[in-house]
Amino acid sequence: MSLPSSNLIAHARKASEPMANRETPFIYNEWYVAAFDDEVGRHLLARRLLGRRVVMYRTEAGEPVALEDRCAHRSFPLSRSHLQGDTIVCGYHGFRYDAAGDLIEVPSQKNCPRGIGVRRYPLVRQGPLLWIWLGEQALADPALIPHQAWIDDPAWACTSGYFHHPGNYVSLHENLMDLTHLSFLHANTIGTPDYASAPYKLDLKEGHYTLIREVVPTTLSPVWGKTTGLEGCASAARIATSEFLSPALHRVSVTFYDSAQPAEQRQQFHIRTAHILTPETANSLHYFIVHGRDFAQHDEALGDYMHEQLFAAFNEDVEGLGALEAALDDRDDHHYEISVASDAPAVATRMYLKKRADAERLHTSRKVG
Ligand code: FES
Ligand SMILES: [Fe+2]
Question: Does the keyword Oxidoreductase apply (predicted)?
Fold first, then answer.
């Protein structure tokens, strides 16, 4: 079979080429979301993050804590232990750790060895999210958290949800940078047939990749048509901006209006979605989502309808990418893929992830070596 080359930006790529794939190591020197703030309380919550086992809880004063989930004695998971005040008593032989992760008691002896403990990870609350730093402690600067102020802004009515996603985080980044899939994977939910072929603009600044797709005129899918009052309007506009903001975060911002109205009279409707990705293992991730709208903020029924429809669509991504992951598991030529022109932002994103992962490994091996 021959392939038309004009729209191909690359032919079959091999793993040796610089695009991240599911074999690329994680990037640790970044803030990731460990949990929604309200998941962490006066109990031990176990979660695997970037391959590491972490246990989280909240002190009596309300401070969220994240520790390595592995007793220093014989590696028993501390998450299978119990809280005593602000300390964890290991469920195997009773070694006790304080909230800093320091070992403070060994029940079988009078003296507790000093300087022993488990790692405590920086954990910072920003609105409804708890951000964790699993990389080099010295680089953990909370100012680098890609906080989304709109999530906390009363002008935006927000709902949130979570999927345990059965795929590699790189493929979800790619999915979010290639919204041509709306016309196919989401044909019955949020997609319309004209979406994939609509004109688009790119801004590919390193580490901040932006794709703007303008679908004008169009007819909106029911979830947007019913909620904006533009249902059935053949002159609707749908302007979507997808942004890769960090290895942990994408933001999708969409504006809807009736393009037949004069510009100064148009009512505009805005929605935003924070797609928050925290790798769990090489083939699974924690997918947190916060979705907001700047209209009908107090209309609970409308909010519920939008949430239900949107999460049905996001579930199509989860199921679709899970199927993709399983298909790759069964192939020994899984590095084979071709890219077309509309893949440019996804390719840029994957190259960036690869570069970051390689740089981090080099840095670590230099320090060790
Ligand atoms: S493994 Fe935790 S006290 Fe022994
Ligand atoms: Fe999707």
Answer: yes
Q: What homologous superfamily does CATH list for 38-142?
A: Rieske [2Fe-2S] iron-sulphur domain (2.102.10.10)
Beta sheet of 129-133, edge-to-edge order: 31-36, 129-133, 123-126
The vertex-173 CA angle with 170 and 178, nearest 5°, equals 125
Atom of ligand 1 nearest to the CA of 76: 1
Which chain residues have CB less than 5 Å from ligand 2, an ion?
317
- Selection from 126, 159, 149, 148 nearest residue 297 by Cα: 159
Which of 3.40.800.20, 3.40.350.10, 2.40.30.20, 3.90.380.10 would CATH assign to domain 156-360? 3.90.380.10
Whose C-alpha lies nearest to ligand 1, atom 4? 93
From residue 364, how far is each of 49, 55, 65, 358, 369 by CA, in Å? 19, 25, 26, 10, 8
Every domain range in the chain assigned CATH 3.90.380.10: 156-360
Which atom of ligand 1 is the closest one to the Cα of 75?
1
Q: Is the CB of 249 under 6 A from ligand 1?
A: no
Q: Please name every residue paired with 281 in a beta bridge, in sequence order, or none if there are none.
A: 284
Quick one: which ligand is closest to 287's CA? 2
Residue of the CA atom closest to atom 1 of ligand 1: 74
Compute CA 61 distance to the chain's CA centroid, rounded to the nearest angstrom: 29
Along the 369 residues of the chain, how does pLDDT read in single tens digits? Answer: 444 444 555 444 444 459 999 999 999 999 999 999 999 999 999 999 999 999 999 999 999 999 999 999 999 999 999 999 999 999 999 999 999 999 999 999 999 999 999 999 999 999 999 999 999 999 999 999 999 999 999 999 999 999 999 999 999 999 999 999 999 999 999 999 999 999 999 999 999 999 999 999 999 999 999 999 999 999 999 999 999 999 999 999 999 999 999 999 999 999 999 999 999 999 999 999 999 999 999 999 999 999 999 999 999 999 999 999 999 988 777 678 899 999 999 999 999 999 999 999 887 776 655
